[in-house]
Amino acid sequence: MSAEASLSGLPELTAFAELTLGTRAADMTGTYLGYLGITVAIIAVLVLLIWLGWRGRKRRQKDLPAPEEVPAALLEAEPRAAAEGMVIGTVSAGDYLDRVAVHGLGVRTNGRLEVHPEGVAIFRAGAPNYLIGAQSLEHVRTDRGVVGKFVERDGALIIGWKLGDHSVETAFRARHASAHQELLAELQSFIRPSDEESARS
Q1: Among the residues of 61-194, which ranges form H helices?
Q2: I need a labelling partner for 130 at 20 to 30 A (CA). Which of 21, 109, 124, 150 fits?
Q3: How far apart are CA 105 and CA 170, in angstroms?
Q4: Which residues of 14-31 are buried (b: 16+ CB within 10 A; e: fewer)?
Q5: What is the enclosing helix (H) or strand (E) of 131?
Q6: Is the pLDDT higher at 190 or at 169?
Q7: 194 pLDDT exceeds 50?
């Protein structure tokens, strides 16, 4: 075969290669779009299921009363102990997966926890503040956390309290370990007073 004949066939080969590549690219694009559509559909279904579950949970918990508001006097009062950190959320006592959905109590947010004689004031960024009244406090302990955030062993402070007739637990993670220990010690003495304090009361 002459050189001229070989060169004359190049445009046809080039056109065929371009057509083949273009067809493959179109096929690949269709495949990727198909995968994308399936992924979006799965995400949409998951979001819908989460929303339906949350709505059902709120319906079941509609009889739970709202917590007390933080009294204005406490905003300027000196707390017995305080710490910045993360308010992980509130769950039913004894079930760290049963998040309380009503009144925004299940929301995880940064915040501040203060211990006062009147109770525990919880200040939250982007969510309503509330007070756990002293008469509502039941227990305090440490754990890994509750649904929404789990940390190292004993890294979260768990405060048990009464919301109406329902026992709940609120989890808080202090930003600093020293503040965590200070809050724990203060709450333990607050909820379980010493023998001397009990005798005086």
Answers
A1: 177-191
A2: 150
A3: 8
A4: eeeeeeeeeeeeeeeeee
A5: strand 130-133
A6: 169
A7: no
